[in-house]
Amino acid sequence: MIKKAIAVMTSGGDSPGMNAAARAVVRTALHEGVDVYGINNGYKGLLKDDIEQLNGRSVSDLIQRGGTFLGTARSSEFKTKEGRQKGYENLKKRGIEGLVIIGGDGSLTGGSLLSKEFGLPIVGLPGTIDNDVWGTDYTIGADTAANTIVEAINKLRDTASAHRRIIIVEVMGHKSGWLAMTTGIAGGAEYILVPEVKYDLDEMCHELREAYDRGKRYSIIVVAEGACDAVGLGKVVGEKTGIDTRVSVLGHIQRGGSPTVEDRMKASMLGEKAALAIISGVTNVVFGFDAGKVVSINLFDAVTNKKTLDPELVRLSRVLA
């Protein structure tokens, strides 16, 4: 059944490319003659009825911008069935027949509940810099975040070399080490610590000390925030090695910035697919990428399975350290 009106929202942590994806959803829907609404501030806005109809001009001058023009916010009320009922009713009264959700695991899980409980057609797009959504090689914003981190590592290397320091760089990733592993390899880090892989702190410190005794000028250690406390690690490494050690916590700078070409292109491709799918009656899927091709993933599989870190990346990081 062809839909007459759909909605799009962004939820969870913002990621560069969300605007490109939402823009593609809006313009594709309009091209197909379908009304499209934007939900402001994620599930919180859905419950507050902060919903507005969008047109082509609503999404102009956006593709190059980071963040999300729709906004995003957490909602404890949405975690209750009563809250979800309220959100569904806000969509229903406008004649909205399907919802495209751009976000990570938690956001897509919320969409799966709307689908299960109220039969609302849902199509998800994986928007998270952690690249941790099951079933897809790529998530919107991960490439831009990775490039931001590598640029920071390049700059930190200069000062590390000048002072013969060890520099520990903390990046995002509570449960997933993809960002740390990828940027650590690309940034030439000597050690990469991620939640998925155990490490021997004493052995690492011993190897660092030996390397400096042989004349090494600096070392870079990239740490995912879920692997350990980077500040505490820096103190221990400095004490055990006797080498001047500094810690740089990149924080939310990783989320910002103009999206890369990859994030703009892939987000746009996913946005078009999502709009066409929801308009034509497809539901309970997430669109992602596998080996460079757009693929559909069952929504419930995407939110119930855990994506694992590619062991080839772990192996490569050890070979190149």
Average pLDDT level: 96
Order of helices and strands: EHEHEHEHEHEHEHEHEHEEHH
At the first level of CATH, the class of the largest domain is Alpha Beta
Structurally, the number of domains stands at 2
Oligomer: single chain
**Structure class:** alpha/beta
Helical content band: 40-55%
List the strand order in the largest sheet.
Answer: 3-2-1-4-5-10-11
Q: What low-confidence regions span 5 or more consecutive residues with pLDDT below 50? A: none
General form = elongated
Count of β-strands:
11
Briefly note the CATH topology name of the largest domain: Rossmann fold
What is the name of the CATH architecture of the largest domain? Answer: 3-Layer(aba) Sandwich
Biggest pleated-sheet summary = 7 strands, mixed
Rg on CA atoms, Å: 22 Å
Please count the helical segments. 11
Strand residues, percent: 15-25%
Roughly how many Å apart are the termini? 55 Å
Features of the shown structure:
321 residues, Rossmann fold, four-stranded parallel beta sheet, 2 domains, alpha/beta
